[in-house]
Amino acid sequence: MKLKVLVDNNTYIDEYYLGEPAVSYYLEDGDKRILFDTGYSDVFIKNAASMDIDLAKLHYLVLSHGHNDHTGGLSHLLKEYENNEDLTIIAHPHTFEEKRMDDILISSPLSLEEIGKNNRVVTTRTPFYITEKLIFLGEIPRVMDYEAKAPVGIRNSEEGLVEDYVLDDSALVFTGEEGIYIITGCSHAGICNIIEYSKKVTKKDKVAGIIGGFHLFDVNEQVEKTREYLKKQNIPYLYPCHCTSFKVKASFLQDLNIEETGVGLVLEWI
């Protein structure tokens, strides 16, 4: 499988792409072409064009969760490539609900009803096999006592306005020859919870690599416990990015192999 970073907070020196504080990755697994998240805007489309990636030929769009730094480009994608009859959109059922933080709208620009008018949409809480080796995890159980304890704003649910614990936060897991590789959006569910569920779903214990946001900002007890957990996993390659602060990454360097992430990064897994 091949992964290319289309959108990240960072861009590499001598790589002339655009950046924004968001996430979008392009994946190829066999003959299947997958887009994971759409960033804030149309930056992912511009960067894809610069990388000679034809988004008109996508088979799947996977959304990690509903926040607008991951879904903001949806309207651009569906307008630009509205004639793609092969496209299936995969997400958790809460992904398209209205979400707010301090009265600021932070949700998808399009509702499920709007998207579903002209597109195939699969909403699922359970794991969904995109290919034989690539799985959308669905809703991730929260088993660690130090993760995912605080709400992130509110959401407009079927029951009305409720605190949003971002239960729609999900991830992808790829089963490779060296172990499993995990692709996250923001890890609101907790990166350790995501790892544990990935192992359970794949029935594999070895984690060979992770890329994506870890949603860790301050070096605190949660970060220390996360670092100890990751150290025990002995993961060869870690690419924490997006919503992972410099201080957190620096603290991880004591014990972990932290790699730099930026627009233009290419990873290949077998």
Automatic annotation (TrEMBL):
CDD domains in UniProt: DHPS-like_MBL-fold
InterPro entries: DHPS-like_MBL-fold, Metallo-B-lactamas, Metallo-beta-lactamase_dom, RibonucZ/Hydroxyglut_hydro
Domain of life: Bacteria
Gene3D superfamilies: Ribonuclease Z/Hydroxyacylglutathione hydrolase-like (3.60.15.10)
Metallo-beta-lactamase domain boundaries: 21-242
A GO MF label: transferase activity
Protein name per Swiss-Prot or TrEMBL: 7,8-dihydropterin-6-yl-methyl-4-(Beta-D-ribofuranosyl)aminobenzene 5'-phosphate synthase
Organism the protein comes from: Anaerocolumna aminovalerica
Lineage, opening ranks: Bacteria, Bacillati, Bacillota, Clostridia, Lachnospirales
